[in-house]
Amino acid sequence: QVQLVESGGGLVPAGGSLKLSCVSSSGRYFNTYTMGWFRQAPGKEREFVGAISGRGGNKIYADSVKDRFTISRDNAKNTVYLQMTSLRPEDSGVYYCAAGGIVRRGEKDYDYWGQGTQVTVSS
Question: Which among 33, 39, 58, 65 has the fewest CB atoms less than 10 Å away?
Fold first, then answer.
């Protein structure tokens, strides 16, 4: 069982930046997992934000965040990051990290999920 713990959420004004972190308990197997970020706004379904392959060579993003958000990982620290810039009120929501086997956009492709961290962007 892999445990994921997100941190770094908070309140930020529109146009600001925030960096989320997600630490995994998978130890030396961390670099075998694709890591994804998803978000869920109140009253909406959870949506894909981005994902990064185990060694970091492949990244994909949702169109809504492309060129504003960057995913990275430090396998030595068992940590994946989501750097968010030019934030908009519509970026608000609970952000979840997830671990899976393949770099894909679907929730079903991820086996393990964190509890989420709240991001609120004020207008």
Answer: 58
